[in-house]
Structure formats: C-alpha cells, structure tokens
Amino acid sequence: MQEREKSETYAEGVRELSVSILQNSKDILSVDFDLVEGSLLTKLRELKSERKSNVFFEELRLSPEDELGLNLFLSSINFCYQDPKTHSEYTFLNKEGEVDRRSLGLKSAMAESGVPWGDFSSVSEITAEKWKEMLQLSKKNPIYLGTERGRRVVRLAEQMLALGLNTPTDLVKYCEFDSEKLLMVLDKSGFFEDEFMKRSQLAVHVMDGVLKRRFDAKLEGTDRLTVMADYRLPQLMYNFGAIKLSTGLHEKLMRSESIETGSREEKTLRAAAIVIGRRVSELMGIPEAETDSLLWTLAVRMGFKNQLPIPHMIVATDKY
After folding, report:
1. Residue ranges of the domains in the chain?
2. Which of 39, 43, 113, 222 is the most buried (most CB within 10 A)?
C-alpha cells in the first residue's frame, strides 16, 4: 500500500479540526474542564473499576472470521436509528424473544441472519429482499435509509473483492495490521464519509478487539484513535455540565427539535466530545478509544434510567 500523502495521522486531523471548530463557536457552547475533572471523571473511574465490557464489543456466536467481517460491515452502516418521519426507533426481535434497539438491534439482526460475514463474495450476493427480511423491516418498523444500508454493505463487499480481498483477514493483512492503513482504505471506500471519522475509527477499534480476542493478533496504532463523536457523548457531557450550552441550543434540545445535519450546532457538539474525550483520556491514563467505550456505556446506562434530563440531539444523518 502507498502511504498517505499527508504527514499527520487521520486522528490528529480530527483533533485539530475539533479544536478549530470550538475556537470559532463560543456563541454555541463552551467547555468547562473543571467539571470534566469532577463528577464525570468520578463516574467513569467507577465504571472502569467494574471491568465490564461495552455490550457493543462482546463476542458474538460466530466464527472469528465472521465476527471480524460483521463488525466491518456493521460499522459502515452504524448511523441514525430514529426514523425522521415517524420518530420511531428501529427494533429487532432476537431468537431469545427479546427486543434489541438501535445499533444493538442492527447488530443482532446481522448476527442472526446466517450470512457468512467473513466471506466477501457471499456478502456481495445479499439481495434487497433478503436484507429487508434480515432486519425485520416493515412500515411499522422502519429504519432511516433502510434499503440504502443494504446496498452499501453489498457495494463495500464488492469493493473489497475488486481489491483482490476475499475475507476480513485478507483486508487486515493487506493493511499490514496497521490501523492508519486500514483507516486509509476505509476512507477511500466512500462508505465511511465523516469529517470526525466516527464510523471508520469505530471499525478499526472493534476489529482490533476481535483480532485480540480471537486471532491472537492486533492492529498497530489504535492508541492514536480519538473518541468516536456521536449524539450520545455530547448528551452525557452537557448533562454533567462539562459542555455549557447556549440558551438557544439548550432550548432546542429540550424541545427535541431536529438539528440540521452539517450545521454549526451539530459540528460544535461533536467537536466538543472529541476535545473532552481527549482530556478524560489524559486524566485516566488510557487511550481515547477506550475512553470512548466508557463514555458510551455510561451514556447508555444513564439514558435507560432517565438520568439524562437534557435530551440528545436529533439529526437525520448517515455519519453516526
């Protein structure tokens, strides 16, 4: 593989972008680092001491190759689970008769589909009807860009085959087990487009976890990843006061009013999550990607318990 032309890493480019956005968005929000180092940090340290994994990273009942592949394809379509027209959330009824929601629902649907995710040729043959059946999609259970997600999965598989790669391990070998080179391939694919690289960095992070658990291998350079900015992380941070919202943005969130994709408000909230995530990482002495897992898990737990009174932002987007 050819090296990336720019000298800085992808992650460093995300950090620099985030700092720049915050410096020019003081009318939207500000960061209170004193509160970052207070109750939020205490909660995260408590969570870390439990030594429980983020459910999004738990081992699946699949072969190692299929688990590696599923996490690649899932990351390519891991975005926006609330239908913007009906405001209903995507759900999936798993084999145990339990309802999984949002990203966990999509993960369960793909894991239980019977598709050999470790075989790019088989993935490339998924039909639109098969995809709809797999995800249990219907008028009563829509998912934002539901059909489009299936097309993206198929096209990503076709692109891997065009590179002469037949399996996920072929991909990581092609990238020489280097996270930066894998990010380059994902970036060039066109299926992970996002200035904050949330889904591509998540793909690298989760695939690295599978390699460590099931292949006795790893990707080099994952310690350089940032946190993966989505709607959950900013919500956790402004509910702890680490992010100070402008009156206008606070009122918009309280009304659950949609925020326009690509707007200054959306980008500033995500940028703040990157900057705060880096500070938390430094204080805890752990990589930012590990910090992301803690932040996400804490946000989900507190959300389920209705302990985050300021709602998360609502954005119809395919970035996160």
Report:
1. 10-53+227-304, 55-223
2. 222
